[in-house]
């Protein structure tokens, strides 16, 4: 279970994300898509496309 305070921002990424990317690739998506520093204490929720 994840417990967050009201001061802890949570961002939801719309669309599907290729979760096969390395951590550096996902960090780059956070920087480019949200304009955020991925090293900060922030929660980003992403979803992957389901496979058939």
UniProtKB/TrEMBL annotation:
The lineage of its organism: Bacteria, Bacillati, Bacillota, Bacilli, Bacillales. InterPro entries: Transposase_IS66_Orf2. It comes from Paenibacillus germinis. This is Uncharacterized protein. It holds the Pfam family TnpB_IS66. It comes from the Bacteria.
């Amino acid at each position: 279970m994840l417990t967050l305070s009201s001061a802890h921002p949570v961002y939801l990424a719309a669309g599907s994300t290729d979760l096969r990317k390395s951590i550096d690739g996902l960090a780059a998506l956070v920087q480019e898509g949200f304009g955020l520093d991925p090293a900060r204490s922030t929660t980003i929720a992403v979803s992957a496309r389901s496979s058939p």
